[in-house]
Amino acid sequence: MASTNKCLARSNKSRTWEGEYARLPVLAAELVHRPAAIIVASGLPSVFVAKAATSTIPIVFTSAGDPVQLGIVASLNRPGGNITGVSFLAVEVASKRLELLLEVVPTATVIGLLTNPNNPRTDPEIGQLLAAARTVGKQILVVKAGSERDFDVAFETLVQERASAVLIPAEPLFSLWREQLVALAARHALPAMCDVREFTTAGGLLSYGLSLTDTYRLVAGLVARILKGAKPADLPILQPTKFQLVVNLRTAKTLGLRIPDSFLLRADEVIE
Asked: Is pLDDT of 23 > 90?
């Protein structure tokens, strides 16, 4: 919890969630007990835990999914209650990531999808990817990893099932261990499509998604307005519309892939 998946207290001490969703209620309760002036929650599990922990302390969130449909806020324009934040629709973005990955690895017939079974909010995204893959004659192989201890087995399964590439979606656990995941993709020679630029700069092949810097700048703006007296209930949910495509050419060369020039021209950033 907090924008870097840590709980920050006024004493400037931090408590990490260590990739275990079961720890989040304890950390949220600690923040409420102190009490914190504002809680920043990143990712849907943190958002729901923070919302359940307090109805009075302001909450600013950033997450995927429709916050109205999920029951987080009453409406996008007037959230109501003690919560506001930044949200984007993950399902549509997930399908776009698959489309972009297949442009770079067109011969792939089986594409792995790494999921966290401890995060039940990923079901719509998985369903959309399965449907999108069927329309183009491809197969999505879902592999589960609920902690960093499961990563090795997940990637070994991908190799055994002859996956030609892997999708690593937006998921707090995966962000926490992004360098390990990128290293595993490299070890098994699997082109990896990820959600944010930070995966690609760490060595992933491709990423398509929001800029973390821009997203947290929006979060910081909401926090500043609340600290100046604004009520979360009156601050509309912000929905970023700009997504960035990042390509790591060094990784492509290592994998023996040639990225089409037309694809590179569409990229927002090319790492050489």
From this structure: no
